[in-house]
C-alpha cells in the first residue's frame, strides 16, 4: 500500500523535528511536549483560538501577540514561546495542530514507545490501563502510551488504534454486525 504525504504534513514534520532537536539539546524535550499537549487541548476546546490559528484573515503579528499572551499566561517554556513566535511569523499557524501531533510522535519514538488511541465506553481505571498497556506492548513490541477517549455509544468494549492497525471489540460494532447478518438471512 502506498502512502502519500501532503505538503502540510511535511511542513509539520520539519517544524516538529527541528523543535524536538532544539528541545533535546536544551534538555527541555519533556517540558515542550507538556506545553504542546496543553496548547493542543486549548485549541480543541476553544473555537476562537482554533479560528485564530487557521484563519488567514488575522495578520501574523496579531496571531503572534495572541499566542504569546496565551503562552505567558500558561507559563510555557521559553523554547515553546519562541517556537510559537517563529511559526506565527512564518504564517504557518494553520499547521500547528499537525506540528503538535508530529512532535508527540517524534518524542514517543525517541522514548521507544508507540501511542495507542483507545476509545472506550467508559473511563478506564489505572489497573485497566496498565493491563491494556501491557497487552498492547506484547502486540506492538514497544512500550505503549495510551491516549484514551470515552464514547458511551460503544455500549462496552474498546476500539484500539496503533498506527494503521485497528482492533474493534465494541458491543456497538458487534450488534451492527449481527443486525446485518440477520438482514441477510431474512
Number-wise, the strands total 4
**What pattern of helices and strands is seen along the backbone?**
HHHHHHEHEEEH
> Which spans have pLDDT < 50 for at least 5 consecutive residues?
1-5
**Overall body shape:** globular
Average pLDDT number: 90
Q: Cα-atom Rg, whole angstroms?
A: 20 Å
- Strand composition percent: 5-15%
Instruction: Characterize the main sheet.
Output: 4 strands, mixed
Compute the number of helices: 8
The termini sit apart by 37 Å
Q: Structural class, judged by helices and strands?
A: alpha+beta
Helix percent reads 55-70%
Side by side, the strands of the main sheet go 2-1-3-4
Provide keyphrases for this structure.
single chain; 186 residues; alpha+beta; 4-stranded mixed sheet; 8 helices; disordered N terminus
Question: Would you give an account of this structure?
Answer:
With 186 residues, the chain is of the alpha+beta class. It is 63% helix and 13% strand. It contains 8 helices and 4 strands; from the N terminus they run ααααααβαβββα. A 4-stranded mixed sheet has the order 2-1-3-4, with helices on both faces. Helix 7 (126-140) links the parallel strand 1 (113-120) and strand 2 (143-150).
Amino acid at each position: 500500500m502506498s502512502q502519500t504525504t501532503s505538503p502540510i504534513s511535511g511542513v509539520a514534520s520539519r517544524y516538529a523535528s527541528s523543535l524536538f532537536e532544539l528541545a533535546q539539546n536544551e534538555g527541555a524535550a519533556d517540558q515542550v511536549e507538556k506545553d504542546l499537549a496543553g496548547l493542543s487541548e486549548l485549541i480543541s476546546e476553544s473555537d476562537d483560538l482554533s479560528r485564530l490559528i487557521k484563519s488567514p484573515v488575522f495578520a501574523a503579528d496579531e496571531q503572534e501577540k495572541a499566542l504569546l499572551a496565551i503562552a505567558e499566561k500558561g507559563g510555557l517554556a521559553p523554547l515553546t514561546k519562541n517556537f510559537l513566535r517563529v511559526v506565527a511569523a512564518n504564517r504557518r499557524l494553520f499547521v500547528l495542530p499537525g506540528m503538535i501531533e508530529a512532535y508527540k510522535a517524534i518524542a514517543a519514538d525517541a522514548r521507544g514507545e508507540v501511542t495507542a488511541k483507545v476509545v472506550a465506553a467508559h473511563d478506564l481505571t489505572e489497573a485497566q490501563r496498565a493491563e491494556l498497556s501491557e497487552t498492547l506492548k506484547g502486540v506492538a513490541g514497544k512500550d505503549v502510551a495510551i491516549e484514551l477517549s470515552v464514547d458511551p455509544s460503544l455500549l462496552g468494549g474498546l476500539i484500539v488504534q496503533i498506527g494503521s492497525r485497528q482492533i474493534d471489540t465494541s458491543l456497538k460494532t458487534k450488534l451492527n454486525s449481527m443486525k446485518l447478518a440477520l438482514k441477510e438471512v431474512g
